[in-house]
Specification:
Layout: H1 10-40, H2 43-64, H3 72-76, H4 84-103, H5 105-126, H6 138-166
Helix pairs in contact: 1-2, 1-4, 2-4, 4-5, 5-6
Amino acid sequence: MKKEKTMPNLSSLLLLAVAIFAGAVVPLQAGANANLGRLLGHPLWATVVSLGVSLALILPMLIAFRAPLPSLAVAFKGPWWIWIGGLAGVIYITAALLLAPKLGAASFIVAVIAGQMAISMLIDHYGLMGFPVKPVNAARLTGLLFIVGGMVITQIANVTPALANATR
């Protein structure tokens, strides 16, 4: 019988810390790109600049790591969905540019996280996109409901002061 891990090890804690850091920079991206879009005169220009900066930063890293040139012929033989990463990036960056200034950083990010968790649970449940199957269970569903509840509470907290000010 295989013994189930009950405590995270140092390696998994480090991975979680890096993931938390990666998540922590997302609101910075939304705010920076929203301001950039205003300065450039249109949010889509900020999307272009943001993706251009990403390319300018990743190319030297590819050279430094001596990454071999990719084989596009092999990639074209892969499943259709391997190409949606770029589309997802454009959707996210453009949504952040347009919505974060209107919703506020916290409301935008909690809504993004709720969407990420809902789709992530579907991906895990069915083992889509090469991920191992991790069925939805009561504990995972409860976690998602807490996130959605947090999103609702964050929205209520935004509306309550506005209503209080409107009645004065």
